[in-house]
């Protein structure tokens, strides 16, 4: 959960800092990221999977999925802790390099890598391109050949496993666009093709079945599908060095639901991997968590500017909006919301909390039972550290918010608020309109 949040005498604090004061000092809307929480989340992965290395002598690598939040301070913090990177674009690869992530801890995902991105990845000598199609494999081989290099490739398989999550964030079903189908033999065909190519080096099998998984069983199913395939490959004389099981561990957005921990995940994956120890030499294990590393560490603070009553509801209007954090509008996602001054825990009222954009879907929470909120109060939207700022946009000509980091050393601005001038900085008016 959100271990960095405490409430003392009705005052909400983040890493010990009074949230209302932070909002006053740094302005709203404001993203607050907690260093202590990120460190905890990362360390739990390392601790939980230590056993894999102890049992097998093989590596365990966490490649943080940059898409969750690619702010440079966050990626540097994780890199400093020893975390690798899962990148899905030239921009993310650029960020990983600026974050000093060693090349052997960078993997490149995505279903439409461009030639320019492939060149960048080969130049960076990354651990693997996770190949999503035969077409991509051919382009990687050709590009590496032109460069006089050999590219490391892993193959993203589509295992047809139901992750039991929101349809918009499930990826490992036959109907999804991702991966090479195993059942029909396409995945095997691709790897056999790669075996005959001179400029690719087969290193791994990759899989990712979806995000915000709240049940361990799909991970076990996924691990089996991947490992069964690795056994098939051995029969063909192809040795797999790395198995990458993707990301996907969920977080408790709703504080009443129980979510498996990193330890639960580790137990399930390690036990399943061990079932194969007599069949093959076990591979290095890579995971690419995004959400479970940073989501709980982030809070979005918005200031209440207006309160309005309609015949059917009471609306709390805040200056944060769907452009800052689009998960509720896009996925009907639930995020816990709380005022930062809790006046009376026992006297609650039912309210809707909305942003100020001209869209009916710009609502952060409906029918929430909250302590009394007044104009000028600060409201906190929790668990926004992942897929918050990274999916923010400028809709309604709103600058993206400032982001600060709370750490033991103090409070730091880690992303500046966009100005009106920033908003127009890429627009060009043709001469005849000047
Ligand atoms: N690896 C691959 C190949 C992925 O596609 C993803 C996420 C991850 C790793 C990281 O998954 P995580 O550990 O964060 O679940 N915008 C959506 C989430 C989209 C996830 C896309 N892929 C949301 O806000 O819920």
From TrEMBL:
Domain Orn/DAP/Arg decarboxylase 2 N-terminal: 47-295
Subunit-structure text: Homodimer.
Binding, pyridoxal 5'-phosphate: 248, 288-291, 387
Family: Belongs to the Orn/Lys/Arg decarboxylase class-II family. LysA subfamily.
Protein name per the record: Diaminopimelate decarboxylase
Organism: Methanothermococcus okinawensis (strain DSM 14208 / JCM 11175 / IH1)
Residues carrying N6-(pyridoxal phosphate)lysine: 67
Protein role: Specifically catalyzes the decarboxylation of meso-diaminopimelate (meso-DAP) to L-lysine.
Top enzyme category: lyase
GO terms of molecular function: diaminopimelate decarboxylase activity; pyridoxal phosphate binding
Active site: 358
Reactions this protein catalyses: meso-2,6-diaminopimelate + H(+) = L-lysine + CO2
């Amino acid at each position: 959960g959100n271990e960095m949040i405490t409430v003392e005498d009705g005052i909400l604090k983040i890493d010990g800092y009074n949230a209302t004061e932070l909002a006053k000092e740094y302005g709203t809307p404001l993203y607050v990221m907690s260093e202590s929480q990120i460190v905890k989340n990362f360390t739990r992965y390392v601790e939980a999977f230590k056993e894999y290395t102890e049992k097998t002598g093989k590596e365990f690598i966490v490649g943080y999925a940059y898409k969750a939040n690619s702010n440079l301070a966050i990626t540097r913090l994780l890199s400093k802790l020893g975390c690798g990177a899962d990148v899905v674009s030239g921009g993310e690869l650029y960020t990983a390099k600026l974050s000093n992530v060693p090349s052997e801890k960078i993997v490149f995902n995505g279903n439409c890598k461009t030639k320019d991105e492939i060149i960048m990845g080969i130049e960076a000598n990354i651990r693997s391109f996770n190949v999503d199609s035969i077409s991509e494999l051919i382009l990687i081989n050709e590009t590496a050949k032109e460069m006089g290099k050999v590219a490391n490739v892993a193959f993203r398989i589509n295992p047809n496993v139901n992750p039991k999550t929101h349809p918009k964030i499930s990826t490992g079903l036959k109907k999804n666009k991702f991966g090479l189908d195993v059942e029909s033999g396409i995945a095997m065909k691709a790897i056999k093709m790669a075996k005959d190519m001179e400029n690719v080096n087969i290193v791994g099998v990759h899989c990712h079945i979806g995000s915000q998984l709240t049940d361990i069983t799909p991970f076990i199913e996924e691990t089996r599908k991947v490992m069964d395939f690795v056994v098939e490959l051995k029969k063909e004389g192809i040795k797999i060095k790395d198995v990458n099981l993707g990301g996907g561990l969920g977080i408790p957005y709703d504080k009443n639901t129980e979510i498996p921990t990193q330890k639960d995940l580790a137990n399930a994956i390690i036990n399943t991997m061990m079932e194969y120890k007599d069949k093959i030499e076990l591979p290095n294990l890579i995971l690419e968590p995004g959400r479970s590393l940073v989501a709980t560490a982030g809070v979005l603070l918005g200031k209440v500017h207006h309160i309005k009553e309609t015949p059917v509801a009471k609306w709390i209007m805040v200056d944060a909006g769907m452009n800052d954090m689009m998960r509720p509008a896009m996925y009907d996602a639930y995020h816990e919301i709380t005022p930062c001054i809790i006046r009376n825990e026992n006297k609650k009222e039912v309210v809707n909390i909305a942003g100020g954009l001209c869209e009916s879907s710009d609502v952060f929470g409906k029918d929430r039972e909250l302590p009394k909120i007044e104009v000028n109060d600060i409201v906190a939207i929790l668990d926004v550290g992942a897929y918050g700022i990274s999916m923010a946009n400028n809709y309604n000509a709103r600058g993206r918010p400032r982001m600060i980091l709370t750490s033991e050393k103090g409070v730091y601005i880690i992303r500046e608020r966009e100005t009106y001038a920033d908003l127009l900085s890429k627009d060009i008016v043709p001469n005849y309109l000047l």
